[in-house]
Structures are given as C-alpha cells and as structure tokens.
UniProtKB/TrEMBL annotation:
CDD domains assigned: INT_ICEBs1_C_like
Residues of the Core-binding (CB) domain: 69-151
Keyword flag DNA-binding: yes
Example of a GO biological process term: DNA integration
Naturally occurring in which organism (per UniProt): Thermogemmatispora argillosa
Family annotation (InterPro entries): CB, DNA_brk_join_enz, Integrase-like_cat_sf, Integrase_catalytic, Integrase_recombinase_N, Integrase_SAM-like_N, Tyrosine_recombinase_XerCD
Protein name: Site-specific integrase
C-alpha cells in the first residue's frame, strides 16, 4: 500500500498491513529535528492528520516530545537529579518514599503524556482505603510539584494535578493538657530519665526532633537561653538524619526560667556520671538527651515511653501534645501571642492563633470575670429597685 505523501517535514499518514490483526492499520509518522522517526497507530486517515497537526503545534510551542517516557522514568529522574539538590535531606527521603511506595506501584507504568486527571483522581480514591487524607495530600503535593517541572520544561502542555481534588483535611483536635493534668503527668514522670525532656518541652514548646538534636553547646548558661538550630529524625535503612528546622523562623533563641536552668544543671551532672561509668563505650556527641551510650535517643523510644507515662497519669496524649500545651499555658498566663509565635518558631502568627491556642474552661471563666469587672466599672450605680417594681408602685398610686 502506497503512503499518502505530504509536504517534506510534515510527516505522513499511510496504511500498513498488521499481521497480528490481519488487517490494514492506519499509521501516522513524524520525523523530529534530530532525524528520529516516530509512528503512531490511529483509527483513520483523518485522525492521523489531526495528530500530526497537534504534534507540529507542540514542536512550534517548544514542547519536548518524548512519547515513550513513563511516569516512573520521569519521577525517578526528577527526585534524584532535579529536586534533591534543592531540598533538605529529610525532605528528600520523605518525598522519595512517597514516590516509590505509593505513586510508582500504581501510576509508574503509564506514559507521562497519557497521565490524565481521571487516573490520578481514581488513584487517590483507591489510596484513601488504606491511607489518611493527610498522606494523600502529601502525595498530591509531590506529584503536582514534579509535573509542574515537566510543564515548565515544555515536556507537558499542562499539569493534570491542577484539576484533581485531593481529600479535604478534617480539623484536627489537638489535645492540650490543663494545669491539673500537667501536674499528674509530672508526678508520673518524677525521677524518670525522660522527666527533664518533658519539662523542657512544656516550658519551651520545642518539637521532639529539636529536643533530640539539642546539644550542651546550644545552651548559654549566662544568658539563661537555649538556641534551637537543628532537628534530627530517624529513617529506616538510612539512620539518623540531622537537619535545620523546617523554616527560618524555626531557628530561634528561647529564654528559660530559672527552675529549668537548675533542672538542666542537675541533669548534666547525672549525665557526666553516666559518661564516667561508660568510659570508652560512651559516644560523645554532646547531646543533652542522649541514649545510654551517648548517641541519639530513639524517637520511637520517646513516644512509647511517654505513652506509658501518660497512661499512668490517666492521660491519652502524645509527646507532641506538650507543644500544644506550652502554647496554651503561655496564653493563659497572659503572654503576648507574638512572643508565643517566636518561642514556637512559627513562620506565621495565624498558625499560632489557629492551631495552638486552645481554650481551657478556666480561661472562659476568667473572660466572664473580666466582663463582670468591666460592667461594674462602666455601668452607673442605680437604686436597688427594679424598673418593674417602680412601675408597679406607680400604678398602685
């Protein structure tokens, strides 16, 4: 069968015998600038002509045509060669896990150019059966960012994630301990190795990873302050990864109360004794809260042990609840919200206001008391007789 000839460089549409289908098949063929040719099966001559016009438009608009590249090939390249050099190592590990564990098993074999909003939306719905909405939104964020790079590089005409709807996040109910609950928790933790860490978390609102990375060199004994400048996380098959805080606002100085400084001095004295006993086995990383050998304390150990202490106190909270508690207690003490924002290391005061300022019943009571006080100060003194009584007397005259 003769090819239907078109002008040079425009490509061609022709019929070719397909031995597997035992019939003729329409083929659209285009030659790229590098001399390579690509053929596409189409249903009719008209569809072939339409496809060639589309391909030529993409070439004129600068789109890079790579019809065989799969989602797997692109995402592997993107995370390793493009995104990794621009982000923290901890973020890279998390993104890579989302890509390899969740995205690639279901979408990896699809050609990049054929990825559709419907495919991605269906993928999210299926994943919701096993994953939380937050994890789905994390996956969406990574996929959207990766595809946007492909759009910026003219590899794709548009980002399909722009029109895909990830699941909504419900308003998380963050638990903050009341003062009475704090007393119960501290009583349960009295004398335990985690006691100093728990108290420092309550006083400063520092995150678990920030406390685990804290070194004695970060403490200024004269200024009575602690410098928060790093965090540590543990990743399976990788180990402990120390990094900077999530944002620039996360790097901060916190002034400590006198009792907290005294507590740290006592804690350091005990640690020096442990170091002397361990001798050559001690791994001196200068950590404030190390394990029994001086190395990083396991985050899993902290969570599990804290959970047991909380249960002893009759509480159902996580270690991160101490951060919420610190904010709320500071607010109940009358500390300005801008100061709380600086202490917690939030980049936006809205985060501090919306997420961490819990309201205790006693705080509501204080608000009512303040209204009573204000009302009595601003309301003119009147006779004890009510308007009703006065009306009744006048009618009786």
């Amino acid at each position: 069968m003769k090819k239907r000839r078109r002008a040079q460089g425009e490509g061609s549409v022709f019929k070719r015998w397909d031995s597997q289908l035992h019939r003729y098949q329409w083929i659209a063929q285009i030659t790229f600038k590098d001399g390579k040719q690509k053929q596409f099966r189409v249903k009719s001559e008209a569809e072939g002509v339409k496809l060639l016009r589309k391909l030529h438009r993409e070439i004129e608009e600068g789109l890079m045509i790579n019809r065989t590249m799969t989602v797997r090939e692109y995402l592997e390249y993107w995370i390793e060669e493009v995104h990794k050099p621009t982000i923290k190592i901890s973020s890279y590990i998390k993104y890579r896990k989302l890509i390899r564990t969740h995205i690639l098993p279901q979408l990896g074999s699809i050609r990049l150019e054929q990825l559709s909003p419907q495919m991605v939306q269906k993928f999210y719905v299926q994943k919701l059966q096993a994953l939380s909405p937050k994890t789905i939104r994390d996956i969406h964020g990574v996929l959207h960012r990766a595809l946007q790079t492909a759009v910026d590089w003219k590899m794709l005409a548009w980002n399909v994630c722009d029109v895909v709807r990830p699941p909504r996040l419900g308003r998380a109910k963050r638990k903050a301990l009341s003062l009475e609950e704090v007393h119960r928790l501290l009583e349960a933790a009295r004398g335990h190795r985690l006691e100093p860490m728990i108290i420092l978390a309550l006083v400063t609102g520092m995150r678990r990873g920030e406390l685990l990375a804290l070194t004695w060199g970060d403490i200024d004994w004269k200024a009575r302050s602690v410098e928060v400048c790093k965090t540590v996380e543990y990743f399976p098959h990788v180990g402990y990864v120390e990094d900077e805080p999530k944002t620039e606002a996360g790097k901060r100085h916190i002034i400590l109360p006198v009792f907290a400084m005294e507590l740290l001095k006592q804690h350091r004295a005990k640690q020096e004794e442990a170091k002397r006993v361990q001798s050559s086995k001690w791994q001196d990383h200068d950590l404030v809260f190390p394990n029994q050998r001086g190395g990083y304390l396991s985050p899993r150990y902290v969570e599990k042990t804290f959970g047991r202490l909380a249960k002893t106190a009759g509480l159902k909270v996580t270690f991160h609840s101490l951060r919420h508690t610190a904010s709320t207690l500071l607010r109940s003490m009358g500390v300005d919200i801008k100061v709380i924002q600086a202490m917690l290391g939030h980049s936006s005061i809205q985060v501090t206001a919306d997420i961490y300022s819990h309201v205790f019943p006693e705080m509501l009571g204080k608000a009512a008391e303040q209204w009573d006080l204000l009302w009595h100060q601003t309301t003119p003194q009147t006779d004890t007789q009510t308007d009703t009584e006065q009306t009744d007397h006048s009618e009786g005259r």
